[in-house]
Model the fold of this input.
Amino acid sequence: MTTLSGKHALVTGGGSGIGAAIAMALAQAGAAVTICGRRREPLEATVALQTGIFAEPADVTDRDAMLRLYKEAETARGPFGIVVANAGGAQSAPAEKVTPQLWSDTLAVNLSGGFFSVQPALAGMRERGFGRIVFVASTAGLRGAAYVAPYVAAKHGVIGLMRALAAETAKHGITVNAVCPGYTETPMLDRAVQRIAATTKRDAAEARAALAAKNPQGRFITPAEVAGAVLWLCAEASAGISGQAIEISGGERW
Ligand code: NAP
Done:
């Protein structure tokens, strides 16, 4: 069984969905886990589920806020040995209707936010000769998809960022990987279903069935399945796995 006892982990977007499941899995393996998000309430709800999880509200798109989070959390619980850049979001629109605001907001949270979440950890991880960095990307980081051009571009950027950091840190005991979930049962999926139902003639059940059908297993991925892959990547025994984009999608092909 993986033990992360004595490790301090940061999980961004840990108040809900995939991030909450990852925070729980890392804490159950013995890590102290700091979670962040913009809203305090969902963070406190995750804290209440499992001992060893600590809430530090912060917006990943605000580099100064992330530097403050690092200072407070590392002073309280020690340097981060594990960083999971999970916070993200998507809105859909035909490419020709994407506004400059939608474009920049989507890149800010999914791509720049990932970099701002990870960058402050790099020097310390290199000095200590240990680090585990995992980006929660998406199958949209590996293939195209209609009506989510900014999200697809941002998640492809995340895969590129992951590969660049893996190359740069390889000699220092640090691994950098990405997990790429297909449609996963979270509040983000619920919002996507509502949008599809509102913009097409389908009801919510039909919209859900259409999305689930994209997974060859005919179902949604669970947050716990994504968390299981992240936990495995964080283990000491995964030291040789770096620069990888690992799909958790039931073998999805678009
Ligand atoms: P979710 O439940 O909506 O979680 C997203 C989390 O990110 C929320 O807790 C949110 O908290 C946080 N967040 C959003 N913007 C933030 C910001 N600027 N600063 C800090 N935190 C922020 O959705 P999810 O499905 O678990 O998504 C987690 C990750 O999985 C995302 O990167 C998403 O792209 C990826 N993903 C999801 C699916 C899927 O089908 N669900 C598939 C592939 C990949 P606040 O709103 O309080 O800030």
User: Anything to note?
Assistant: The chain has eight helices and seven strands. The chain has a mean pLDDT of 97.
